[in-house]
């Protein structure tokens, strides 16, 4: 009988006994791993009360960031909602050591509460600072006059020096780049004696870079608009056509319209400063690892934060255009330093810093598939570093909130066939650093990455986004 008649072709020749042996071994090993993983995850979950609070799902991953007044001044996909202040009944003095673009500090100000925010990303800290700094009437007037004369202001200035970012001419069309750099010079010139107004306009300028750019943020970095995603791959778009479709024939007008729209919206939202409590709000550009240096023994009623998730996402990669063009970094060494100082949630962080993670993490790492690419890239050390870093921050949070609660919004992750239950491990670390009680509010389920889906069939319910409450 021919192979074809037997339902086989030459690519699916019958396995030889040796291969059967290997396949069987792999299957038995896979079975053993899944059994051990199930046991460990179940035992870990049983350590804490896990309350289902799906009603909180809209607030941990917040779409309102792009439409809510003031919060919409700078797009930060990673933001959570200021409504968590009400939902979690936070106290009058709140600390957010990973404050991003200021969801909590702004939310606190509008509710008449006080907040201190910290973030390592200088753009995030800057954006929070601008939002927390009300402009007086005369500054608003200056901004309005700048806006009214925007084209004239831009065209009467030469270009600001182009940053040394290697892809600077790739991320903007030449005519757009000209507008970006001229308008930067116009801002510095027109507001040279009014820092608050300058910062306000500068934030508007920063936040339109992606809109006017030939790039956009996606996944773990940026993608170019001259490519289109089609069924899992990227195809080239016709040069000349895509620019016309995106910017129209007048790229200068496209830039001016985007800048005007952003500035007008920010001026409109500035009415928010007329009520609430804006004085005494504080934002610090720095690392949460040095939290106690910044808070200097201050006590807070509540702490809330969402650290970067352990998902290999490098914030400094996706914000590199804004970091360079805004002069927040002036060299690749500056960028490298930010990456190294960040929480070890991505592979560009400093994985060489020592780490002493919880024991249960090692049990989970031992079950990882060592053939998986994430293993080879160094995910085990990344995980060890991540939970070590979390411990450093939690210990200082404990000291900052001696009588109140600490809320941590986290997402579990999956690597090399293993789920890492970040929420439970955070609770374990919380108790270790001195909190007395811990519970977990499960807010929603996360999807497992396509390459992990088969391996983790049956484990989907462990992929949670939760709020860990420590007190
Ligand atoms: C999930 S985001 C927080 C977003 C924030 N809750 C908001 O609503 O905008 C995590 C933040 O941690 C910051 N980050 C990373 N490493 C840090 C560190 N060592 N210290 C302080 N912030 C850090 C990132 O820049 C990012 O803004």
Topology:
Layout: H1 17-45, E1 49-52, H2 57-60, H3 84-87, E2 93-96, H4 103-110, E3 114-119, H5 122-131, H6 137-148, H7 150-155, H8 174-190, H9 195-207, H10 209-212, E4 215-218, E5 221-224, E6 227-230, E7 233-236, H11 241-247, H12 251-269, E8 282-285, H13 291-295, E9 302-305, H14 315-318, H15 320-325, H16 332-341, H17 359-365, H18 373-377, H19 379-400, E10 405-411, E11 413-415, E12 418-420, H20 422-432, E13 438-445, H21 450-453, E14 464-470
Parallel strand pairs: 1-13, 2-3, 2-9, 3-8, 9-10
Antiparallel strand pairs: 4-5, 6-7, 10-14, 11-12, 13-14
Helix pairs in contact: 5-9, 6-9, 6-12, 8-9, 8-12, 9-12, 19-20
The chain binds S-adenosylmethionine.
Describe what you observe in this structure.
The chain is an alpha/beta fold and 471 residues long. The chain has 21 helices and 14 strands. The protein folds into 2 domains: 30-132 and 278-312 and 347-470, Vaccinia Virus protein VP39 (Rossmann fold), CATH 3.40.50; 137-274, no CATH class. It has helices at residues 17-45, 57-60, 84-87, 103-110, 122-131, 137-148, 150-155, 174-190, 195-207, 209-212, 241-247, 251-269, 291-295, 315-318, 320-325, 332-341, 359-365, 373-377, 379-400, 422-432, 450-453, and strands spanning 49-52, 93-96, 114-119, 215-218, 221-224, 227-230, 233-236, 282-285, 302-305, 405-411, 413-415, 418-420, 438-445, 464-470. It has an 8-stranded mixed sheet with strand order 1-13-14-10-9-2-3-8, with helices on both faces. A two-stranded antiparallel sheet has the order 4-5. The chain has a two-stranded antiparallel sheet with strand order 6-7. A hairpin with a 2-residue loop joins strand 4 (215-218) and strand 5. The protein starts with 16 loop residues before the first helix and ends with a strand. The model is unreliable at 1-12 (pLDDT under 50). S-adenosylmethionine binds at residues 76, 78-80, 98-101, 103, 118-121, 124, 287-289, 306-308, 315, 341-343.
């Amino acid at each position: 009988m021919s192979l074809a008649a037997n339902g086989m072709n030459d690519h699916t020749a019958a396995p030889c006994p040796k291969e059967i042996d290997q396949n069987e071994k792999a299957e038995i090993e896979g079975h053993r791993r899944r059994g051990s993983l199930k046991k460990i995850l179940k035992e870990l979950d049983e350590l804490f009360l896990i309350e289902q609070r799906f009603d909180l799902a809209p607030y941990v991953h917040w779409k309102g960031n792009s439409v809510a007044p003031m919060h919409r001044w700078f797009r930060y996909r990673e933001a959570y909602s200021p409504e968590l202040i009400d939902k979690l009944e936070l106290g009058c003095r709140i600390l957010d050591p990973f404050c991003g673009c200021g969801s909590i500090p702004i939310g606190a100000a509008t509710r008449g509460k006080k907040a201190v925010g910290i973030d390592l990303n200088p753009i995030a800290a800057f954006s929070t600072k601008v939002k927390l700094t009300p402009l007086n009437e005369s500054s608003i007037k200056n901004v309005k006059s700048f806006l009214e004369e925007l084209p004239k202001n831009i065209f009467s200035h030469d270009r600001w020096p182009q940053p040394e970012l290697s892809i600077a001419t790739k991320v903007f069309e030449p005519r757009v780049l000209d507008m970006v750099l001229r308008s930067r010079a116009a801002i510095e010139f027109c507001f040279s004696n009014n820092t608050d107004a300058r910062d306000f306009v500068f934030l508007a300028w920063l936040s339109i870079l992606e809109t006017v750019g030939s790039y956009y943020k996606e996944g773990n970095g940026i993608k170019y608009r001259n490519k289109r995603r089609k069924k899992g791959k990227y195809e080239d778009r016709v040069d000349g056509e895509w620019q016309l479709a995106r910017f129209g024939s007048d790229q200068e007008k496209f830039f001016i319209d985007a800048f005007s729209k952003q500035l007008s919206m920010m001026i409109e939202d500035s009415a928010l400063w007329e009520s609430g409590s804006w004085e005494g709000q504080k934002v610090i550009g720095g690392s949460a690892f040095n939290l106690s240096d910044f808070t200097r023994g201050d006590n807070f009623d509540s702490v809330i934060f969402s650290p970067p998730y352990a998902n290999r996402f490098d914030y400094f990669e996706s914000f590199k255009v804004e970091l360079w063009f805004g002069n927040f970094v002036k060299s690749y060494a500056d960028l490298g330093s930010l990456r190294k100082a960040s929480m070890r949630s991505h592979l560009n962080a400093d994985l060489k810093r020592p780490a002493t993670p919880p024991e249960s993490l090692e049990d989970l790492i031992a079950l990882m598939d060592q053939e998986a690419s994430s293993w080879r890239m160094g995910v085990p050390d990344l995980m060890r570093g991540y939970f070590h870093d979390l411990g450093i921050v939690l210990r200082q949070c404990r000291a900052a909130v001696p009588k109140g609660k600490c809320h941590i919004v986290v997402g579990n992750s999956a690597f090399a066939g293993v789920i890492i239950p970040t929420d439970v491990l955070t609770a374990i670390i919380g108790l270790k650093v001195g909190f007395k009680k811990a519970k977990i509010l499960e807010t929603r389920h996360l999807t497992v990455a396509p390459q992990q889906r088969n391996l983790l069939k049956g484990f989907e319910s462990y992929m949670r986004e939760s709020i860990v409450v420590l007190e």
